[in-house]
């Protein structure tokens, strides 16, 4: 869909001063024949629960019409098209959801439009939670709803935090509609969808063979509706994302816990946007909580997947976003490996790409001087989420912008962690050289006294271990040790060699050579 293809902060007209609907001589009541046909057919397919046709119209027809007819203006208003769909309340809510998404992607929404979009989401989610919704929608659309809901919340917080140039009218509206895009409202809707859908219980029952939610990709083949269940499922990813934007990484990972990300084939992988967003935020949260091994493992798997499949998404409206997130995950992987050098966890193809992109920078980041910290700063700033301050602004004069405050805080915390890791690189390099070494000897090598060395070793232990969401202590250490009678005994972790990967790569190379030889013969 059109909106999903944009990294919205780069979308044309996103900044204040971009084109608005009111600037373009737009007539909201004019409905071209192609739009009449589109809404009539989409309405019929939704009533008939024809998921395949809905998906074709949602991903194909809506995109093509937007590109051809509504490049710089919104779609016709819902009031103008409602007559062609029997004034159906549910369809009108869905149409408005697409209408606002297109507006955010192509134009610059006014404050009133931001508030109206919030009201529309409230109406739709309340209908799903408390009404009877007897329809099936494609997973892509349901993911896009949750994704866009969180994005518009993020966008509103960023917009509201830029107080410096707000007009009196905008300030009056912000005061009047102070509940619009309220952080508690956003979290409550996502949590309510998780609870009402009973998705946590469904995923538990699936482990016992009593449910087939994942096997059916969330769809119902018995005439029921998939909307509440799949919205509940994707809302767990939405909650992870919101908590990452707020800097509460532990809670974010806890919200995602019912989804076993280590197992392939979860419903979150059925939509590439969902797959990437899940792994990106999961990996970032682990990076900030010192779960470096977990972030390296998942980033590597995701980047290998994108490396293999991105060619098939070149015509997809999500292609640009896929490429951008791909680059950001390489940057985050380079940060994770610089803080926890466990290259053995990275797939060979990914490692090759990583060395091409960041090999030189990663070497410089090991020096822990001012230049290294500047590189950590640069890569973090490029790859991190756009953090938000969810609290309402103070309207006292003078009005100031505070949209960068949350980002600066997270950057400061990250760089503080990097500086604490500085001592560890020295300890690690010495420990790698020995299987046993006395405390006295290591202290003399490091030019510190024995009590200081004990403190450094305790810091190493602390910094190379983290607490997982379920309370388990997990190790990130590639070199570990224990102390017995003032002797340090080193335990180096050795990973099992993966011979299968090597043979698979050689087989693929051989097949490519045979193919090339056959082509030469034919020529």
Alpha carbon gap, first and last residue: 43 Å
The rough form would be described as: globular
Contiguous helical run count? 21
Oligomer state of the chains in this structure: single chain
The average pLDDT value, as a whole number, equals 87
Largest sheet properties:
3 strands, antiparallel
Q: State the strand order across the main sheet.
A: 1-5-4
Helix proportion:
55-70%
Rg, nearest Å:
26 Å
Order of helices and strands: HHHHHHHHHHHHHHHHHHEHHEEEEH
- Report the uncertain regions: 1-23
- What's the β-strand tally? 5
How much strand content do the residues show?
under 5%
Q: Return the structural class.
A: mainly alpha
Overview of the molecule:
This protein is mostly helical and 523 residues long. It is built from 21 helices and five strands. The protein has helices at 33-47, 51-69, 78-81, 89-106, 111-130, 139-161, 168-176, 183-197, 199-207, 227-246, 249-256, 272-288, 292-309, 319-339, 348-365, 370-383, 405-420, 422-431, 439-446, 450-463, 499-522, and strands at residues 436-438, 465-467, 473-475, 479-484, 487-492. A three-stranded antiparallel β-sheet has the order 1-5-4. It has a two-stranded antiparallel ribbon with strand order 2-3. Strand 4 and strand 5 (487-492) form a beta hairpin. It is globular and about 85 Å long. Residues 1-23 have low confidence and may be disordered.
């Amino acid at each position: 869909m059109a909106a999903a293809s944009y990294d919205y902060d780069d979308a044309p007209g996103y900044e204040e001063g971009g084109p608005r609907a009111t600037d373009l001589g737009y007539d909201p009541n004019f409905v071209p024949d192609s739009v009449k046909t589109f809404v009539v057919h989409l309405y019929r397919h939704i009533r008939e629960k024809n998921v395949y046709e809905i998906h074709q119209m949602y991903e194909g027809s809506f995109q093509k019409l937007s590109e051809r007819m509504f490049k710089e203006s919104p779609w016709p208003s819902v009031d103008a098209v409602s007559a062609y769909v029997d004034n159906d309340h549910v369809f009108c809510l869905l149409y408005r959801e697409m209408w606002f998404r297109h507006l955010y992607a192509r134009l610059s929404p006014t404050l009133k439009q931001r508030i109206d979009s919030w009201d529309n989401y409230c109406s739709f989610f309340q209908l799903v939670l408390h009404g009877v919704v007897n329809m099936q929608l494609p997973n892509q659309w349901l993911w896009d709803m949750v994704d866009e809901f969180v994005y518009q919340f993020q966008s509103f917080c960023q917009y509201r935090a830029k107080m410096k140039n707000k007009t009196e009218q905008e300030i009056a509206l912000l005061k009047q509609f102070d509940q619009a895009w309220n952080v508690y409202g956003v979290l409550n809707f996502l949590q309510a969808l998780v609870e009402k859908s009973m998705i946590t219980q469904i995923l538990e029952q699936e482990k016992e063979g009593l449910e087939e939610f994942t096997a059916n990709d969330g769809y119902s083949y018995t005439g029921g509706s998939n909307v509440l269940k799949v919205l509940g499922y994707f809302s767990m990813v939405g909650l992870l994302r919101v908590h990452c934007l707020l800097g509460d990484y532990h809670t974010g990972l806890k919200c995602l816990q019912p989804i076993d990300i280590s197992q392939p084939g979860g419903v979150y992988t059925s939509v590439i946007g969902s797959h990437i967003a899940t792994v990106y935020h999961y990996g970032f949260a682990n990076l900030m909580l010192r779960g470096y091994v977990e972030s390296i493992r998942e980033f590597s798997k995701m980047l290998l997947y994108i490396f293999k499949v991105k060619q098939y998404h070149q015509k997809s409206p999500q292609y640009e976003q896929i490429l951008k997130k791909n680059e950001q995950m390489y940057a985050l992987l380079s940060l994770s490996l610089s803080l926890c050098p466990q290259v053995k966890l990275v797939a060979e193809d990914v490692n090759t790409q990583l060395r091409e992109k960041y090999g030189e920078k990663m070497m410089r980041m090991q020096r822990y001087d001012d230049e290294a910290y500047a590189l950590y700063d640069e890569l973090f700033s490029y790859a991190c989420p756009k953090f938000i301050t969810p609290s309402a602004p103070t309207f006292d004069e003078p009005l100031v912008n505070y949209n960068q405050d949350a980002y600066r805080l997270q950057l400061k915390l990250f760089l503080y962690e990097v500086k604490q890791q500085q001592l560890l690189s020295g300890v690690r390099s010495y420990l790698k050289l020995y299987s046993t070494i006395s405390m006295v000897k290591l202290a003399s090598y490091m030019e510190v006294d024995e009590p200081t060395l004990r403190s450094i070793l305790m810091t190493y232990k602390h910094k190379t271990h983290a607490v997982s969401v379920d309370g388990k202590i997990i190790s990130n250490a590639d070199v570990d040790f224990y102390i017995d009678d003032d002797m340090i005994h080193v335990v180096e972790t050795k990973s099992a060699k993966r011979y299968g990967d090597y043979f698979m790569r050689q087989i693929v190379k051989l097949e490519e050579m045979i193919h090339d030889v056959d082509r030469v013969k034919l020529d």
